[in-house]
Amino acid sequence: MDDIIQSTLMFVLIVEIILGCFGNGFIALVNCLDWVKRRQISAVNQLLTALAFSRISLLLTVLTVISVSVLYSDMEVTRRLIKLINFPLLFSNHFSMWFAACLSLFYFLKIANFSNTIFVYLKTRVNQVVSGTLLMSLALLFLNTLLINSYIDAKMGGYRGYLFNDFSSNNSAEFYRVILIINDGIFTSIPFTFSQLTFLLLIFSLWRHHKKMQQHGRRGRDAYANAHIKALKTMITHALLCAIFFLALLMQTWRTELMDIIYIRLCQIAAAAFPSGHSCVLILGNTKLRQAFLSVLWWMRCRLKNVHPKCF
């Protein structure tokens, strides 16, 4: 029975990863083709493209690790192998989270309106603020890598064991749990908190604008309120998926009797919903991407209609 459950969860996870790769690949392809055509690309499309590539890298890395865990479960583990597995995951997850956080920051600075002097200064320099945020995140990436590599060197030593068959042992479970706490509990929490903060501030900005409109006796939505609501529709889904992603990562660090392969797979499925599902939200929330997606669906419909005319 456990084998059937594990196989089912594995299948769901792989399908989720493949769909995520297609969704993010579509975003990257449309923006790159538009860049080649127009010879220029906007700041928001630069962020979307970079975010798509980082998530493709993350999903493919996770898929590779999962494939190795299934096909080579008896592989002997060494310090070098652990580092080779950990660094691509750490690197791609870092940029996936920070590009998403910077996208939220970009929407917030472009749409929100506060009279605070610091905010006005940042609002007039949106591109520089986003670039500076990404550059500062590199320092966190360096520190994260340094801490995890130091921990691996200190704990592994000359140890040799089996990569996945030995995971259920207390020593192995504790080893991987500490790595998750360093990477996810500490460093992933920073862009997560950053994203949630910009989301809450944008809601507060909309509330202030609505209150001001009521004081002036105006009803209904104006263009400014519509811009807030459009951005919030995208950011609400981002905030929820990001929260699920972060909680799924944290759940893997809990010491519990359920810490077996089924529990891990469920956490992985929940975590993969963020880089996979958020691409669909970005496509539907962006006019250019949505039109391109509908054009692809229409083209596929016409192709199928030519082959199987009775289907439509």
TrEMBL record:
Cellular localisation: Membrane
Membrane topology, as annotated: Multi-pass membrane protein
TM region(s), chain numbering: 12-36, 48-72, 84-109, 129-152, 186-207, 228-250, 262-284
Keywords from the UniProt entry: G-protein coupled receptor, Glycoprotein, Membrane, Receptor, Sensory transduction, Taste, Transducer, Transmembrane, Transmembrane helix
Domain of life: Eukaryota
GO cellular component, one term: membrane
Gene3D superfamilies with a match to the protein in the record: Rhodopsin 7-helix transmembrane proteins (1.20.1070.10)
Protein's UniProt keywords contain Transmembrane: yes
Tagged with keyword Glycoprotein: yes
Molecular function GO labels: bitter taste receptor activity; G protein-coupled receptor activity
Predominant localisation class: membrane
InterPro entries registered for this protein in UniProt: TAS2R
Protein family: Belongs to the G-protein coupled receptor T2R family.
Protein name: Taste receptor type 2
Gene name linked to the record: Tas2r129
